[in-house]
Structure formats: C-alpha cells, structure tokens
Amino acid sequence: MGRFLMITSTLIALVAAAWAASAGPWAWWVLAAVVLVIVGVAVYDLLQRKHSILRNYPVVGHLRFLLETLRPELQQYFIERNWDGRPFDRDIRSLVYERAKGIHGELAFGTERDVNSLGYEFLIHSTAPVAVPERPPRVQVGGPDCAKPYDMALLNVSAMSFGSLSPNAVRALNRGADLGGFAHDTGEGGISDYHLENGGDLVWEIGAGYFGARTDIGDFDPAQFADQSSRDQVRCVSLKLSQGAKPGIGGVLPAAKVNAEIARTRGVPQGEKCVSPAAHSVFSTPVELIEFIARMRELSGGKPTGFKLCVGSRTDVLAICKAMLEVGTAPDFIIVDGSEGGTGAAPLEYEDHVGTPLTDGLLTVHNALVGTDLRDRIRIGASGKVAAGNDIVKRLIQGADYTNSARAMMMAVGCIQAQICHTGKCPVGVTTQDPKRQRALHVDDKSERVRNYQEATVQQAVEIMASMGVSDPSELSPQQLHRNTGRNEHLSYAELYDWLEPGELLAQPPQSWSRDWAAADAGTFRSV
Question: In a structure prediction context, what are the per-residue pLDDT tens digits for the chain, which is 528 residues long?
C-alpha cells in the first residue's frame, strides 16, 4: 500500500507541475498555493493522533476514507448482482420502482436464481388455473366484541412514524392509501397533521411511550386516547409490544430532533430528549395485556383493536392465548413482525441476532390460535420484507390474513436504499426533517406511485393464486409452498412443519407443543 500511495503522490505532483509549466506564470502561484495547502495537511496528518493511516501516509491516506465513504454506492451500482443484494436485491428494487411508475416490471430470458439451491422456496401452480377475480379479495378485521369491523386490503403501509419519516413522505403514503383504498399504519410516533391531510385510512399504533395519548409523566391517558381514536380516519388501533428489527428495546429521540411539530404530535416537551421505553407501564402480565386491549377497544368506540409483536418464545405466545381464554375476550388482530423487518436505526446485534424470523413467527402465532380454538375470531397481519406478489401469497400460506410493507412503500416514494435513514441526510427526502432535503419528494407524484405499486403488487398476488387454482386466500394450503431441503429433495410446508387442528391444545397437546403449553401461564410472561 505504501508503494502505491507514493507512486500516486508522485504522479499527482508531476501532473500539477506539467500543467503549471504549460499554463503560464500565474499558474505557478496557484501551484505554490496548492503545495502549501498539501504541506499543511501533511503536517497536520503527521501530528494528529486519531488516525494511524494518516500518520503513516499523510495526504494520500485521505483517499482511503473517500473510498470508504463511496463504498455502499459502488457496491450497489457496480458490484452486487441482481439477485444477491441486501436488504433488498436489485431485482426487487427495480420491480418496486417500475410498478410505482406504472411499468409492468417484467423480465426476459428466464430467472437468474439458482432454483436448486438449499432453502429455495417455490409455489405450486395448478394444471387447471382459475379465472382471476374482478376485484382483489379483502379481509374483514373485527371479532365478536368489535362494533366497527374494517375491510383490510391484502397489502398495506406498515408502521413508520412521523419523525422517522419526513412530512412529505407521510403525506404521500397517506394520499396513496386513500387513492388505493388500503390502510396506513402511523407507527408509534402519534397521529400527525400530515397523517390527516389527505384522508387515508389509519391504523393508529400506540407504543410504550403512549405518544399522542399520554400524561405529562408518560402514563397512558384514557381521555386523550378516546379523543384521538374517535376520529373517523382512524379505522383500527394497534398496541406495539415489540418491533422486528429491534425487539425488546425502546428508543431515544435526541433533544435536538424534538422540534415543535414532533413535540405536539407526540405530546412531549419541545427540545427535550424523548424516550420510548422498552416495556409498557399499563400491564405486566398476559391477562393485563388482554384486559388493556379490551379497554382500548371500548375507549375507541368498538373499533378493531390488536397488537403487534416480534415473536420471542412460544411459551409467551401460548400464555397470551391462555389469557384470552381466561379473560373471555381477544384482540381483533395480531400483527406478526419478523426479525428481518426494517427500522430507521438499531444496534447491529439486534438487527442481526435477536428476534424470530417472520416465517417461524407466523407459524407459531397461527398454530397457537388454531390450537386454542381462537383463530376464527382473530386476523393475522404479516410484516417483514414483503415487497412482491409472491411474498404476499407465501405469507398467506404461512398463516397470515393480510400483509404490511414499510421499506417497499418507502421505495415507491423514492427511497434508493442508501441506508442512512438515521443520519437525517436522506438523499431523496424520505427519512429526514431537513426542509431542503424534504422538498425533493413531490407529494402528488409519489402518492400516485404508492397507489400504483400497491395495486399492481396485489393484482400480481391474486394472479399467482389463480395460477395455483385458488380464487380466495382461504383456499390456500401448506401443500402449495415448497422448500428445497437438499440438492435433490424438496418438501412442502405441510411436511416441514406441524399444523395443529382446531382446539388441539385444549384437548390433547401434541408432544412437540406439550412442554411449552404446560409452561405457559396467563399470569406471567416467561423468557423461555
């Protein structure tokens, strides 16, 4: 490396000298000034103590930091293949962009993926496909204790808060939801003016900070909650227990970011650090959780009320089911968030190593509800890396009734997966509160793109189901989703996983569930 840097320095010096010699006498003064600046930088680099590279390789060592800064863009645009980028590969990003623009999003010459690789999953089509329904199916959310059921679309905007998203991004998402007739989850940051501007249906999410429905000391405020949830635009209320990308931890919004708008929306003091606790203060047991869900539903006037979680232990899920049976009521919906879900910012250890992936989480919740004979009154939403039509169909087979998407919806409004959401320097105005950056996002144009993307993706999911011989999601079965378990073997989800029968846990738990069922207690949450 040292030899490379020395050669580079010499070449730069020779080029500069040649330019000065050919440009005339004045250029020598420019060259002298440049040399003085370089010498100054070199002296500083030699004396500073923070960077070893610069102490050993003054001036030219800065090239290393420049290349490091450009690495994500170089990787994304010039190095990664179409199918192996993360979190979303190039094929999926292109699909979202094209559908958002009204382009069909088709490819030529066949798949680039290794369809024989271990873990590859595929859907089973029918020799006798059925006609595609004229209208995409919707899912009625609202159990027997709900007075105001809501018909949910198969794909909706997942939870993203104002503060994490810019005002224009919130506006575009909500207007797109209104145009397309699907739901927009507010995230736990409260209902902002931007959520209300365009009239799109809202799922109001409440987190452990109770933003928008809290007292001065951070407790839950029933009066504020009742007032906010009574809005006609609020169609459902969701209690956030945990988030896929960072389950089990809260969040902190630094004081400098708590401007007047965010303070008003969240109900917190302006200019003071805003803390979202990891745990709720209004309940500490499964029974208390279910009782609080029932209270929220009553305060909202009977609107569908549920909770979101990233699944931890199966014992906890079963304890919540036992609490439903003991209390005699149940949430109207449960949103299962996978550990592969996105976030504006989280510790690497949490993003990569904590929480249950969406597939296992969905199967756990679905089977727990079936086994306790509760499944017919509770709808399940799936959130976590849902972007294409096959993602929707796959999650429906795994136990979901509908899906939510955050990052794909962000891409529909212009996100380029720069992965600097937490810095406030989003280059396309999606995740920033900087007015100069926000203006890049044109609300009218991007809201149409949100509508286009959702409509085309749901239509593709419906067409896939028709190809599988299915006209309604309720007809899907685990036999229709297969996974490669070896180079020469694949098994269906019916063979890979246990699927409980209605009421089976109440009658005679199977051996694979018996230990967790016995350990589950409606009076306590357990970590194992």
Answer: 444 444 455 556 655 665 555 656 656 566 677 777 778 888 888 888 888 888 888 888 888 877 777 777 777 777 777 767 778 778 888 899 899 999 876 777 788 888 989 999 999 999 999 999 999 999 999 999 999 999 999 999 999 999 889 999 999 999 999 999 999 999 999 999 999 999 999 999 999 999 999 998 999 999 999 999 999 999 999 999 999 888 888 877 777 778 888 899 999 999 888 888 999 999 999 999 999 999 999 999 999 999 999 999 999 999 999 999 999 999 999 999 999 888 877 788 888 889 999 999 999 999 999 999 999 999 999 998 999 999 999 999 999 999 999 999 999 999 888 888 888 888 899 988 888 898 899 999 999 999 999 999 999 999 999 999 999 999 999 999 999 998 889 999 999 999 999 999 999 999 999 999 999 999 999 755
Q: Which of 189, 404, 196, 146 is nearest to 276 (CA)?
A: 189
What is the rounded CA–CA span in Å between residue 204 and residue 236?
Answer: 6
In this structure, which amino acid lies at residue 16? Answer: A
CA distance 105 to 245: 29
d(CA 22, CA 30): 13
Closest CA relative to residue 422, chosen from 361, 348, 369:
348
Separation CA 521–CA 110 (nearest Å) = 52
Alpha carbons 159 and 167: distance in angstroms, whole number: 15
In whole angstroms, what is the distance from residue 515 CA to residue 492 CA? 26
> Is residue 275 within 8 Å of 207, Cβ to Cβ?
no
pTM: 0.89
* Fold (topology level) of 138-519: TIM Barrel (3.20.20)
DSSP string, 288-315: HHHHHHHHHHHHTTS--EEEEE----HH
Per-domain residue ranges of the chain: 1-79, 138-519
CA distance 454 to 156: 8
Using DSSP's 3-state secondary structure scheme, residue 84 falls into coil
> 277-312: string of b/e by CB count within 10 Å (b at 16+)?
eeebebbebbbbbbbbbbbbbebbeebbbbbbbbbb
Report d(CA 117, CA 270) in Å as an integer.
53
How far is 356 from 343, CA to CA, in rounded Å? Answer: 16
The residue count of the chain comes to: 528
